[in-house]
Write a sequence for this structure.
């Protein structure tokens, strides 16, 4: 688009932060100090009148800003996806609506986006509490052990990306926390930049037990999506084979006792349990086979790759080529 800004700034607001107004002013001060032509898109995903009023106030003060108020709370990933769809710039800067990084460092993300597709912020946790560093360290250690090529600090929601990444990478559920990993897995170049952590984010925070369980389920989901989306039989086959092996072993043991130790089968719960485990394993493997069939018939509709560059004109004739072929044709007729 000819009138498109150079940078689109997306701020998804999916939770009420009492310091959001101060944080937003700090973002605006940093952006206004630069010479970058940018637009700002606020996605309000909370039904808080004060947050909505502040977002609308910012829109009235900024010459190139919009606020999009969702009808109800749909979650962080939905808010981010809607915000990306509403942008028009070739470069997109996503900023959290709560304190994570120092607002003065947001331009570092754009500066490092010149020769890559996405830049993810990595917070310097040196000033954070010991408990906070321990939590983040354990979380990132688990992720790194599962995904050796993982970019660190997956919990940080400040990053910059190109228009092509925004158009090609699908986000749903809670995948916004793993966006750098999804982008990398699809073949894009991802870079990390160390930024200062916000001073208001260094205080120790104890989360509810459900938060940790949710994080564990998110990790399991990402393992499946990044490794077994195209080969579900390997995932279900591994689990199903374990059940089949356990059920078969139980049945063989009961049969051995019947024929060699003369122990009756009728009062043996192990017989029913072994048969049940065996059937469950067969069903799990069957689910994997059905998944393989679905992937086989629909794989052409779900691309999982990114083409960086196409060079040459294979199959296209130039005007000189047409003249040469015509001249050859004439000489052959002589």
């Amino acid at each position: 688009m000819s009138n498109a800004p150079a940078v689109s700034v997306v701020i998804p607001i999916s939770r009420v932060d009492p310091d959001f107004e101060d944080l937003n002013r700090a973002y605006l001060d940093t952006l206004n100090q630069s010479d970058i032509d940018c637009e700002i898109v606020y996605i309000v995903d909370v039904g808080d009148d004060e947050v909505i009023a502040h977002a609308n106030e910012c829109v009235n003060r900024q010459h190139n800003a919009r606020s999009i108020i969702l009808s109800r709370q749909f979650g962080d990933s939905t808010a981010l996806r809607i915000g990306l769809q509403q942008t028009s710039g070739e470069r997109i800067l996503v900023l959290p609506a709560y304190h994570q990084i120092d607002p003065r460092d947001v331009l570092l993300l754009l500066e490092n986006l010149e020769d890559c597709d996405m830049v993810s912020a990595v917070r310097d946790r040196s000033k954070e509490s010991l408990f906070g560093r321990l939590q983040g360290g354990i979380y990132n250690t688990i992720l790194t052990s599962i995904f050796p090529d993982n970019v660190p600090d997956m919990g940080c929601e400040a990053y910059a990306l190109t228009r092509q990444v925004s158009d090609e990478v699908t986000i749903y559920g809670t995948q916004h926390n793993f966006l750098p990993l999804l982008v990398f897995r699809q073949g894009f170049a991802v870079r990390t930049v160390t930024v200062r952590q916000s001073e208001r984010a260094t205080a120790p925070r104890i989360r509810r037990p459900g938060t940790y369980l949710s994080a564990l389920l998110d990790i399991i989901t990402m393992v499946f999506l990044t490794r077994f989306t195209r080969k579900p039989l390997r995932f279900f086959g591994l689990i199903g084979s374990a059940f089949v092996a356990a059920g078969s072993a139980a049945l063989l043991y009961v049969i051995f006792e019947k024929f060699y130790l003369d122990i009756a089968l009728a009062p043996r719960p192990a017989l029913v349990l072994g048969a049940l485990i065996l059937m469950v394993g067969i069903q799990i493997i069957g689910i994997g086979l059905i998944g393989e069939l679905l992937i086989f018939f629909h794989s052409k509709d779900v691309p999982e790759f990114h083409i960086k560059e196409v060079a040459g004109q294979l199959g296209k004739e130039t005007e000189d080529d047409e003249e040469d072929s015509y001249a050859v044709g004439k000489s052959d007729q002589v």
